[in-house]
Design a protein that fits this description.
The protein has 201 residues and is α+β, with helices and mostly antiparallel strands. It has one domain: Triger factor/SurA peptide-binding fold, CATH 1.10.4030. The protein is 56% helix and 14% strand. Strands 1, 2, 3 and 5 form a 4-stranded antiparallel sheet that branches. It has a two-stranded antiparallel sheet with strand order 4-6. A hairpin with a 2-residue loop joins β2 and β3. α2 crosses α5 and α6 crosses α7. The radius of gyration is 19 Å and the shape is globular.
Length: 201
């Protein structure tokens, strides 16, 4: 099945977008992935390379986590979104440079800010749902350290690695179950790709 083309009316020109997947009532388009890359949110790194199936799968996982975060009432303060938006502007070369890039590509500022806010929701969900329930014991930390590394900063770093590893494994199990329960349609065949509809800032 080929991904569907969408013609999105955006001043000053029409953007040809590509529908890549549907997760419940929400859709994922090439512009969603491209914008996440450009903003550096949802675990995406800035990239101008073609959008592949792995990118779509990552975005599907994001939507599943955001849906669950909404169900358990995770919210983000406006001040946190504003601080994250400022950080995005700095990475883009300054607020003025970011605004010029948004205008050049006819990207709605509210859409971009929404993704930045959802990235914070995703992080809070991971902390609340997985990381908060991992408690490595002292013996596990000692084994992780290895011989000759017993100072407190090293132990804390080892503890953090164990927490992240265990949380990642639990998250993977949760996502696999969430995918089985969700209504997901992937429209980008494995092995194929589409060009991002706009360039990076």
């Amino acid at each position: 099945m080929l991904a569907a083309l969408l013609y999105v009316s955006l001043a000053p020109a029409e953007l040809v977008d590509t529908l890549l997947a549907q997760v419940g009532a929400r859709t994922i388009s090439a512009s969603d992935v491209a914008l996440a890359r450009a903003l550096g949110v949802f675990g995406f790194a800035p990239s101008a390379s073609p959008i592949e199936r792995s990118d779509v799968d990552r975005y599907v996982d994001v939507l599943l986590m955001l849906d669950e975060a909404g169900r358990i009432g995770i919210e983000v303060e406006p001040a946190a979104v504003e601080a994250a938006w400022v950080a995005v502007g700095i990475r883009a070369g300054g607020e003025a440079a970011l605004e010029r890039w948004l205008d050049k590509n006819a990207i709605d500022r509210n859409w971009a800010r929404r993704l930045v806010g959802e990235d914070i929701v995703k992080s809070k969900f991971l902390d609340a749902r997985f990381i908060a329930f991992v408690f490595p014991d002292d013996e596990a930390v000692t084994r992780e350290l290895g011989p000759g590394q017993h100072d407190e900063p090293a132990r804390e770093q080892a503890r953090e690695r164990l927490v992240r590893q265990a949380a990642s494994e639990t998250q993977a199990t949760w996502l696999a179950d969430a995918r089985r329960r969700a209504s997901i349609r992937i429209l980008l065949p494995a092995g194929s790709s589409v060009a991002p509809p706009f360039t990076l800032p």
